[in-house]
Design a protein that fits this description.
transferase; ATP binding; mainly alpha; triphosphoribosyl-dephospho-CoA synthase activity; triphosphoribosyl-dephospho-CoA synthase; about 300 residues; EC 2.4.2.52; binds dephospho coenzyme A; binds adenosine-5'-triphosphate
Length: about 300
């Protein structure tokens, strides 16, 4: 394999590692683990997320390597079924690495699933000599629709996980639905809100530039996604009503300007306190924020 392919895979894997750490450290976040507190989690804190990210770091490149084995020649449709099966097999190993590192705590299960698919599809693009851009989400949509169908829509197995139960009882498609949509919420809501916020903040000279501005724009993107994402973590802990309640609270903050409001820290800290009190954590939306961060480092797809 050419050294340049390895270098590209390595760069994208490092971007995942960085996206997870940036997401975890972003403070304040409603209901989630951050510098301020453990959010609505009694079993993990920022240290647990860091230990987990450290353990996962060497593994991200493996998903890209799987992708390189499924490179297609122009006009060839490829074997998506085998590609997906290989990605999921690496995914199960990596999930176990996470559980071993955290003594059984679910720190990054959703992230492993999302970035397994994104890096796998990116690796396939690199080996095919195609450009890596946000359009990699379209490749994920094509590959991951089978996960949604096989695991949920066409499955006659008894539900084994919270996500599977929530599909059976309420038709919620959770992490699988997001993947099958090509991460539409991250791409069309999170990334758009992030870029708009960066543009607005960049022309306000009294504001601090650099990382602080980026964090503020990321928080704005998180609020925008909280207002629309059917997060199965919320439904698991608080029932489907909890999803609507959290979305409504995020909408009210956005109506005041979201993280662009001068008083945004106080507004988000109040939201955080309410979610902690209700024991609600939007972990799926945090995963989508990590995906947004990763996508923000890629060029846009050609129109
Ligand atoms: C499909 C997965 C996510 C299992 O899901 P499960 O049934 O437990 O689903 P559940 O809905 O409970 O969610 C799991 C995680 O997804 C995230 N999530 C939940 N809702 C959402 C949402 N709306 N959007 C994005 N992420 C979400 C959360 O972090 C959550 O903890 C995955 O863990 C899996 O299949 N693992 C096997 C190995 C694998 O395939 N790895 C990835 C290779 S590509
Ligand atoms: N900063 C964060 N804080 C909390 N969760 C996060 C954060 N970032 C991502 N997540 C995601 O949230 C998920 C963990 O959520 P949660 O703890 O609710 O799941 P669980 O342990 O399966 O459920 P429960 O704790 O209700 O038994 C992880 O899969 C992870 O990917």
């Amino acid at each position: 394999m050419p050294a340049s392919v390895h270098a590209d895979l390595d760069r994208l894997a490092r971007l995942v590692d960085s996206a997870l750490r940036v997401e975890a450290r972003l403070t304040p976040k409603p209901g989630l683990v951050d510098h301020r507190n453990n959010g609505a989690h009694s079993d993990m804190d920022l240290h647990t997320l860091t230990v987990s990210a450290d353990a996962l770091a060497p593994w991200w490149v493996e998903f890209g390597l799987v992708g390189t084995r499924y490179a297609r020649t122009p006009g060839e449709s490829g074997d998506d079924e085998a590609f997906l099966a290989d990605l999921r097999s690496v995914g199960r190993t990596v999930e176990q690495v996470m559980f071993d590192a955290t003594d059984g705590i679910n720190t990054h299960k959703g992230a492993v699933f999302a970035f397994g698919l994104l890096l796998g599809c990116a690796g396939r693009r690199i080996a095919e000599g195609r450009r890596i851009d946000v359009g990699v989400c379209d490749d994920v949509a094509e590959v991951a629709t089978a996960v949604l169908v096989d695991d949920l829509i066409a499955s006659d197995r008894a539900p084994a996980t919270a996500g599977e139960r929530l599909f059976r009882d309420h038709g919620l498609t959770g992490a699988r639905g997001q993947a099958a949509s090509g991460y539409a919420t991250a791409r069309e809501v999170g990334l758009v809100a992030y870029r708009e916020a960066m543009e607005i903040l960049a022309v306000q000279p009294h504001l601090a530039l650099g990382p602080m501005m980026r964090d503020r724009a990321l928080l704005h993107a998180l609020l925008a996604m909280l207002a629309v994402n059917a997060d199965t973590n919320l439904a698991h802990r608080g029932g489907v009503d909890a999803m609507g309640w959290v979305a409504g609270r995020a909408e009210r903050i956005l109506a005041r300007g979201g993280a662009l409001d001068p008083d945004y820290v106080r507004l988000v800290e109040m939201f955080d306190d309410e979610l902690i009190h209700a024991r609600l954590s939007p972990g799926g939306t945090a995963d989508l924020l990590a995906v947004t961060i990763w996508l923000s480092a890629l060029p846009q797809a050609p129109a």
